[in-house]
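Hi, here's the filled form for the chain we discussed.

Project: internal
Contact: R.S.
Residues: 297
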Amino acid sequence: MFYLSRIVLVTALIHPLLGWAVDLQPNDILPPLPDRTVGMVSYSNTENTNFYKNGSASTIGPYANPVIGNVNAIARLSRTYTIGDVPGLSFIQAPYGTITPSGSLATNPSSSGVGDTSLATAIWPYVNHDTRTYLAVAAYLILPTGTYNSSQVFNLGNNRYSSDLQIGFHKRITQNLDGMIAIDSQWFGGNAQCAAACGSTTNTSLTQKPVITTQLGPIYKINQTFTVGASYFYVTGGATEINNVYQNNVVNTQRFLLSALAYTDIGRFSLQYGRDIDVQNGFIQNRLLAIRYLKAF
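And the returned structure, exactly as it came back:
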């Protein structure tokens, strides 16, 4: 059970943050209009299955048929402004959800409740509307406000602080086709109350190396209402240490995300689908579905 717990830890703590703290939708790098309040609500449903260790799928014992379901409802409130001539935006985001292990992991209890709260601020140091070229920088802070029980392997909360710095670039390619690329690095504080997820009956210390994510892809404007986009992600880093013992579990994950946006008189609607393409260490995500609604006031 000790080896299983250490493996589950990596997925339970890293993957939700990678998916919702730094993922960008099409046109997120476009600078917002100032002095507006923006509300967003979203629903996401993910499923992770086969476990991979150094690129090979494990099928013995608890890995015979592992399934990890994760459902989240997220509320975000943003405010836009200018600092001199520089556009800016800040938001607070709070999730509520459930993680449900099943299949060969069914003996582990599920976790329901609030997730960790995210704070973020973004600025646009370069804006050129004529060439549709934009550069944005964002900083995130994730607070340990989520539901956490050290005696459980799976938790909605991470019981630690983390921060992220992201830089994004958006550029017109043709009249209706744009491209975007963003790179971010996420740093993690320590969790001194890691028990079950660290394979221990008592609280022990967990630390983690930074995770670096690169995302890029095209954005195509069909007409004034509909826009579609595709994103490729490469994630690396994130090896953990338990009581200063290196766990040899570097994350090297490739995934994709397809997006469809509709700009209407009552707000922006978006639908997204994605999944992992390749996983070296951890449970592979074979489904990500997300629906979002955004309204500016």
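Let me know if anything looks off before we file it.
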